[in-house]
Amino acid sequence: MSDTLQAGAPFPWRTFLKNLAAIAIPVALQNLLTTTASMIDTMMIAPLGETSVGALGLCAQFSSLMFSGYWGFVGGGMLFFAQYWGAKDDGGIERSYGLTWLCMMTVAVIFGSLAIFAPGLVMRVYTDKPVIQAIGVEYLRIVGFAYLMQVFSMAMSSLLRATERVRIPMIASMASVATNLFLNWVLIYGHLGLPALGIRGAALATTCAAAVNVAVIYLLAQLTGYPYLFRVRGHFRWNREHLRNYFTKCFPIIVNEVLIGVGNMVINITLGRQPEHVIAALAVFRTLEGLIIGFFAGFSNAASILVGACVGAGKLDTAYERARRLIYLCSGIIGLTGLLLIAMNYPILTRMSLSGDSYDAGLRLLVIYVIVAVIRMGNWIQNDTYRASGDAVTGTVLEIIFMYLLVLPCVLVSGFRLHLPYWAIFLCCYIDEPIRYVLMQRHFYSGRWVKPVTEQGMTALPAFRERHGRSAGRQTC
Q: What pLDDT sits at residue 283?
């Protein structure tokens, strides 16, 4: 990652792809393991009926809302981790991690408390089906205890990934997934002399797996001598300047994730009023969507690190050229992944309890999603690249504006006013993606998204701005 691109020199594809693979593949494998475990959870719950599958899917949407609440801090933290890592500033990494950890755990406490103490309220928000509500309440009361541990492990994993220690979170995920699968087998159906707990068994398995994930990360970090997780005093040595800089950069990301999370909750509430076979199909689709996103997140993390570290080190032209190639490379990879899922739709959907009308609904949702995924992930990779480079505003503003002025009105009108079919409501969820893609591409070629937070990066910025200010008008989208 220390290569610097000289003016007029050919792009070092071999080194670039090697660095990309070294970061992206372990992260993608980690995410795929987690998503595969979710798929197997759904398969193991399937014999309990479509109602149980639908309830599990709606509980997952509450977890996704929590994800939106803390992911803004992950995105902001990664910005600082990557740039300070490129600048070799240990103190900056430690302070940024401590602040990120504290903010994330605050979100985890709020959502964990809601799941444990007010699960009925949560389920009534997401669906009007009493049977599904009752099953979801049983699950949330237990899995709420996992939320603290899941968010804690995510905070540690984000730091490890940004500092190129991607194998530790991957190994921890392997141990966690193995624990989850084994305990699912034991607790859902009552093997090894234990009682069959059904949906509560799945929740207990998830909670134990979360504890294993945290324990393995801590153990491996200590055994490998990784310093940043254990310098606790350094985590909380903040000053006014650092706090101001952190929240100034993070605030747009936090606002973006929270508002988008709320918008997605409204979408899920609308879709949660559909017939039960559609709710079951949506639950299965969300699991498969997690498979696509989990695979893609490895490349998104790699983009943030490869670009952000160069920006922090003052290698701004290298960061720009890397970002330009990553956008199109990642979009192509995600398109191929989606086509593979469509080709394997029959065995996957049927093994996850879908048949008849629910199978048809699941297939239709999957096809619509794969068509828009290439553009959607192109927007995502650009936004993550901008954030890692210091521009947390552009993608945030565009995403919020289009979510609240275009997507949500279309979803609500189509669902509650026009009573359109579920697939038409679902298609409205992505109506903004092509427009945002054009606007994001224009911003990319301007180079204005490069905004360093380190001294090395800010020193190199004027010359970079001058070069790209002259050439932006000649670029095409």
A: 78
